[in-house]
Amino acid sequence: MNTLQLREGRAGDAAAISALIVELAPAFFLSPDGAGTEPFLASVSASAEAGYLADARYRFWVLEATGGALAGFIASRDTSHLFHLFVAPAWQGQGLARRLWRAMQAGAAEAGHRGGFTVNAALPAVAVYERFGFVAEGPAQRQHGLAFLPMRHAGPADEAGCDDAGLPR
Prior knowledge:
By secondary structure, the protein is of the alpha+beta class.
């Protein structure tokens, strides 16, 4: 049986975090060949992720499978911005994104954050964020070969009407 451990991210996670992002990133590239995404890819390199992990403005939570494989992770910036959320393909559809989102919310509350949250959602992920209670806050943007939708979540009260799958009760 493969179990998952939720823990805070640490410096040694940078390479696995970067590898997971790079594996999943082509799904949200504007061009199939990845043209123009070089700045984005540089911003998610192992060295860049190591920098985020070492920076007090960022906080990471990881779900680690038995044996140490990365099943997924979430990161916040400045307590209120959902900076990264990725789940490995083998683990998708099992509620891990929701579990990570809740860990981030709890961490923000522990840090004294009582307001809302923002995210720049990759277009294929918009439905996931909508299930979490996020709403679009403007038109889709294009930058560095990617398209994203700025979204806002009002705060923990938005989750009251959802079940564990993020669907309305």
